[in-house]
Records
---
Amino acid sequence: MERYFPVLTRCALFQGMGQEDIKAMLGCLGARFASVSKGAPVFLEGDPAQLVGIVLSGGAQVVQEDYYGNRSVLSILQPGDSFGEAFSCAGLEELPVSVIAVQDSQVLLLDCRRILTMCSHTCHFHSLLIENILQGLARKNLAFTQKVRYMSQKTTRDKLMTYLLDQAKQQGSAEFVIPCDRQTLADYLGVERSAMSAELGKLKRSGRLDTKGSWFRLNPVEQHGL
Amino acid sequence: MERYFPVLTRCALFQGMGQEDIKAMLGCLGARFASVSKGAPVFLEGDPAQLVGIVLSGGAQVVQEDYYGNRSVLSILQPGDSFGEAFSCAGLEELPVSVIAVQDSQVLLLDCRRILTMCSHTCHFHSLLIENILQGLARKNLAFTQKVRYMSQKTTRDKLMTYLLDQAKQQGSAEFVIPCDRQTLADYLGVERSAMSAELGKLKRSGRLDTKGSWFRLNPVEQHGL
DNA sequence: AAATATATGTTGGAAATCCAACGTGAGAGG
DNA sequence: CCTCTCACGTTGGATTTCCAACATATATTT
C-alpha cells in the first residue's frame, strides 16, 4: 500500500493534501484495495454505481458495448486517474458502462456516498475533496468535448489527424506517445482499425508523420507552389 | 426579473434554496441579465471562460465548428439549463465552444470565480451551491456518455433509433417530443440531415414509428413468422 | 531459437455515407 | 390570396466506410 502514495499524492482527487492527510481520508472513506488481472473487469455494466475507483498501477479503459457487440472506448485510464465518480455523483443506480483492466492492475475503491454525505467536521479535508472532485468532473467534461470533436469529423483521416494534433499540443511536442494501441485508438475515435491503419500508411508515405507502435512524430507540411 | 424566479427555483444550480435565498445569492454572485436575439451568440469560441450562464427563457445550443465549417451540436439548452460551468471550473482560459441562441432568449450570467472562491461564511448556501454544481457536472458527464453512445453506432439508422429509444425511456412514454428540429438533431447525432430524413421515411413506411415535426411515436415491432 | 500469440498493415468488393440539387408543404407577412 | 421563406423529404452518383480475409511484424513463451 505504502508504495502507492506517490501515485495518490499526484492524483487529482487528493490535490492539496499531504500523505498523512490522504492516509487519514482513506480510512474515513472506507477505501478497499483490489488487484485485477489483464482483461478482467473492474466494474461491469449494470453493477451498482456507488463506487469510485482510482488506478494505482497498470491501466484500464471505460468501455461501452452496443447491441451488436461493437466496442466503444469512452476513456483511457492511467495510474492516478479516477473513474466512476460521474455516475455515483449523478445518483445513478446502475453503471451504464464497464471498466476493464488492460494490464494487470491495482485499484483503490472508495464509497462515493461517504464522500458526499460525510459530515464536514469529521475530516478537515472534506470540502477540499469535494472541490477536487468538482474540478475532476469539469476536466472529464472537457475530455468528452474533445472526444466528441474527434468523432464529429467526417472522415477517418480527419478524426485521426484532429486527435494527433491535439495530442501534440497537449504534450507540447510534435513527438509524443499515445496511451494505447491501434485497436483502442480506433475504438476511441469511432473508426475501423483497418481503415485507420490504411490512413496511417498514406500519411507516412506522404511524409506527413512517422509512427512506430505508440510513438508518433508530426512533420510540418511542405508548401507546394505558392 | 421577478417573473423568472419559477425557472430559477427549478434550476439544478439552486436546488434546496428558497426564492429569497436565491435572490441573495444572485447578489453575491454578481449576476447579470442579458437578452439575446434568435441566431445571436451568447458566447463565442475564444471568449474568456469565466462566466456561467443560465437560460431563463427561449433556448440555446452549445456548438462547435470544425475547419471546414461543419457544425456539431454538443448540447441543447432549455429554460433552467446552465452552461459554461465545465470550462470555468476546469480553469480554462478560453471557451472551446460557442453558445448560440436559437430563439429570442433571456439569460442570466454569473461569475464562476466568485462561486468557487467566495468565502463560505459570506453566504450560508455556498457549499450547497458547490454541491449542486458538482451534481450538475456529473449529469452533464452522463449526457455526454449518452451522446457518445449514439455517435458510436455505425449507421445513421442505428444512431437515430438509439437516440429515440432513449428519449422514449427518459420521457416515460412511447409518444414524446424532442427539443429540436431535424437539422439540429442531425448535427447532434453526427449524421447527414438528408440521410436521417431518408431513414425516418423508411421507418415511417415500415410502421416502426410516426412523426410530425418534433412529435414522435415509437410503435411495437411486429413479430413475423414464429 | 522455435513456436505461439498478438498487434499492425494491406486489400477488394459490398454497403453506407456524403453532397448537391430539387420537390413539397406549412406558416408568416404583405 | 399570393409570395416568400424555411423546414423537411427525396433522389442519384461520387466518395468513403465497412468487413472479412490475409500478410507481415512484433512480443511472449517454451
---
Amino acid sequence: MGDKYDCLKLKSQLCFPLYACSKEIIRKYKPFLDKFDLTYTQYITMMALWENESMNVRELGLVLFLDSGTLTPVLKKLESKGYLERKRSKEDERNLIVTVTEKGWKLREEALSIPESMSSCVNLEPEEASELYRLLYKVLGTQAR
Amino acid sequence: MGDKYDCLKLKSQLCFPLYACSKEIIRKYKPFLDKFDLTYTQYITMMALWENESMNVRELGLVLFLDSGTLTPVLKKLESKGYLERKRSKEDERNLIVTVTEKGWKLREEALSIPESMSSCVNLEPEEASELYRLLYKVLGTQAR
DNA sequence: CGGAGATAGTTGCAATTGCTATTAAATTGT
DNA sequence: ACAATTTAATAGCAATTGCAACTATCTCCG
C-alpha cells in the first residue's frame, strides 16, 4: 500500500541511512580522537600519509575523496601541530609535497589505540561487516569523480 | 602478510568508505537539488516534514540524526523561503512547532522528480541495494544517541 | 621563442555539523 | 508555593565541505 509520494520518504532511499551512519560513526570517534587533539578529517589525512609517507595535495585528495580547498586548511593545521611538512616540489613548483615528520611517525604509534577502541563500536557480524564493506566500495567505485 | 599498522590503513576500516560514500552520493544530488535551490540538509528536512506535517525541533532532530543547533538555521532558512512555519506551542512554550506551508506542499509535487533522477546513480543490483540498506540500518540501530 | 591552454594549489563564500554555554519554560519534590 | 532540576531551543565557536574565482607554473604547439 503506497502512494505516489513513497519515494520521497526517508526510509525509501539509500542516501539517508548512508548519511546518518557516516555521521554517527564519526561521532563515535570523537572521544578517542580528542585524546590526540585530532579531528576526523585530520585523522584520515594522517592515515593516508602513514600509508604513503609523501604525497602532493592532489593525490591526497584522490585518496580521501576531498577537494584541495578542503585539504589546504587541514594540512596547514597538521603542519602547525608538527605532524607534517609542506614543501613545493623542486621538479614542478605547482606541486606541494606533504611529508610526515618524526613527530608524525611517533603519533602513529600512539594512534594504534584508536582502531582498537573503535572496533567494538560497530555491532555487525564479521560477514556482515565485510559485505557492507564490499557494497560501499562497489558504490564508491561507480562514482566517477 | 600484515604489519602491526595494518589496522591504521584506510582500507581496513568501515568508517572511511561510509564517510566517502555518503559524501559522494550527496554530491550527486547537488545538480538536482540546485534546480529547487535546496541543499541536501534542507531537502531531507522537508522530506521528514512531508511525512509528518508538523513536528517540533527535537523530534525532527531524532528523525534526521541532527542536533537542534544544526536544525535552527536550516529551519530559519526554509521558513524564509516560505516552505514552513515556525511557531511556539501553546501547550508548552518551550516547543517550537514546525509546519509545512501551502508552498511547502507544492514543492513536494515538483520534488518527486528528485528521487527519480537519482535512482540511476547508484549502480547496485536490487538485492545488493536492499542488503546495504539493511546493514546500514542495523549499524544505525545499535548507535545509541 | 611566446602565447594558449592545462594543471596545482589557495582563497573566499555559504552551508553544515557537533559541542558548549545560555535562556526560557515546565516539572518535581519538599 | 517555590527552589532545584530537567527540557527545548538558540547563539557562539571551530572545523568541514564543495564550489568558483584566482594565481602561479608548466606544457604544447605554431
